[in-house]
Amino acid sequence: MASSFGKGGAVGGLILFGTTTSLFAKIVYELKSVGSDGTEKYFHKPWAMTTLMFVGMTFCLPLAYLQNAMKKKSGDDIEEPLLQDSPLPAGEVKEPRNELRETLFLSVPAIFDLIATILMNIGLLWVTASVYQMMRGAEMLFAAFFAITFLNRSLNKYHLMGLSCCVVGIALVGSASLLSGEGSATVVVSQEQMLAGMALIIISQAVQAAQLTFEDFFMADMNVAPMKIVGYEGLYGSAICLMIMAPLCYFVTGNEGEGIHEDMIDTLTMVKNNGVLMAILLIDMVALLMYNISGMMVTFQIGAVFRTVLETMRTLFVWLVDLALFYGGAGLGESWTPYSFVQAAGFIVLVCGTIVYNKGDEEEYNKEVKEAMAVMATEAPQEGSTAPSIQGTGQQPTPGVPIGAVAAPTAPITMAGSFRAMQTINAVGSYHRVGSLPHGSMPASSVAGSVRRGHIVTHGAGTDSDEE
After folding, report:
1. Is Transmembrane tagged as a keyword (predicted)?
2. Which of 133, 165, 279, 437 is deepest in the core (most CB within 10 A)?
3. Strand partners, 40
4. pLDDT confidence of 317, banded at 50, 70, 90?
5. Which residues of 431-441 are buried (b: 16+ CB within 10 A; e: fewer)?
């Protein structure tokens, strides 16, 4: 009962807090406050929102150390590795950790995340929250491109069908947004600005896919808890925003609220002069932290495939709540136009593309497991023994194979590298090592790369985190 309650709470938290962070990211742009010049204006502060996201991620750091302290107290002084590996063979000693190096190395994905987030936040100025969520399906396209280009992967027919649906879906959503002419409920947005906003969001997904590729390729063997990864990336991102980007954006010339020039003194003044704005920003930061925690719980307790479904629901909730805000008299959100039917069709196509793409991952996983079992059987044969099996926790034993009879190969398994290093694209546009986790669960590195602000929305159907 307690386990079911915990899973239910994680599922509810993922949808609730994920929807909250996506909605609030747009709502704050539609609130007014008096700035340092004494005039009332909209809170168009994408750099402030980017900084807020990183500050929210930073709160994962004390939670990670608290979790580690509790493990030590209980006698389990082992951190979760970035990717789950098989137990070490008897007599083999694990290499000592270089915690300082690991910590400093996390600054690189933090820079990727900073670039992607500011591009998304600027793009969100000129598109609605629902379009913002759906356009992020482009990450799947770039993830596939990087997998082919840098990881020497090949795509099967399901992958290609899923990517085709992704292209069609994004085209439908983008066309609907341009035809409706609605990018904000409070200000007039030109078609040029809408195009620029959607282009920035798409470019941000290329950066996000590059970040996840970097994390999985260079950081796969780092023995760092996923919560600590998010926390340190938040710490580095906050430091860069506050110490470098805030002064730089203050002195650079440009129009306020377009992502180039941003007056940090004016930002603080506007927050101080509007209690509602301040409350929303604080709630948003807490919601981001809770979204991170809920997302990790869902991924590890239920699985990444189920999380993909939830992220699809999250996008739908964002759209529904946005409509309710508009027609509820709040003066926020977005309206339903004749072109919203086109957007709905695009959303459905994106969801179908994600499902089909995930089917391709499943096919690749099954194929590679069979190949790995065949290689293991030929490399470590034992007279009178049955073929080794690759089993994940909770999986049914392979017929004819005794439980626990998993042979440890004496040499690396060579399958386009090694079986341990084989990587594939999952439904949310990141990569994971095939066979490393049971039931298709997402590894820690993918989680770390996805628990920002919705960066794991189904990315076709709405990647934090997410929402990233």
Report:
1. yes
2. 133
3. 34
4. very high
5. bbbbbbbeebb
Question: Contact, 137 vs 409, CB < 8 A?
Answer: no
pLDDT at 115 over 70: yes
**Mean pLDDT score, 57-64:** 90
**Domain count along the chain:** 1
Given the structure tokens 């796969």, which residue do they identify?
220
As to burial, measured by CB atoms within 10 angstroms (0-12 exposed, 13-18 middle, 19+ buried), residue 118 is buried
| Cα–Cα distance for residue pair 442/419, rounded to 1 Å | 17
Count of CB atoms situated within 10 Å of the CB of 155: 18
Q: Which H or E run contains 425?
A: strand 423-425
Structure tokens at 292: 């991170």
DSSP state of 244: I
**C-beta atoms surrounding 464 within 10 Å:** 29
Any domain includes 137: yes
- Written as one letter, the residue type at 369 is V
The pLDDT-based confidence of 96 (bands split at 50, 70, 90) is low
* Residue at 392 is within a domain: no
Burial class (CB in 10 A: 0-12, 13-18, 19+), 289: buried
Task: Give just the sign of the alpha carbon dihedral 439, 445, 449, 452.
Answer: positive
Average pLDDT (191-210) is 92
H/E stretch holding 58 reads: helix 46-58
Asked, for residue 467, whether it belongs to a domain, the answer is no
| Number of residues in the chain | 468
Distance of alpha carbon 227 from the chain centroid:
14
401 is a domain residue: no
User: What is the rounded distance in angstroms from the CA atom of residue 388 to the CA atom of residue 398?
Assistant: 9
CA-to-CA separations, 425 to 68, 79, 159, 358, in angstroms, rounded: 30, 26, 9, 9
pLDDT per residue as tens digits for the range 79-88: 555 444 445 5
Its domain, for residue 44, covers 2-73+101-377+413-448
Quick one: pLDDT at residue 284?
A: 92
Confidence of residue 89 (pLDDT cuts 50, 70, 90): low
High-pLDDT (> 70) share of the chain, %: 73
**DSSP codes joined into one string, 190-235:** -HHHHHHHHHHHHHHHHHHHHHHHHHHHHSTT----HHHHHHHHHH
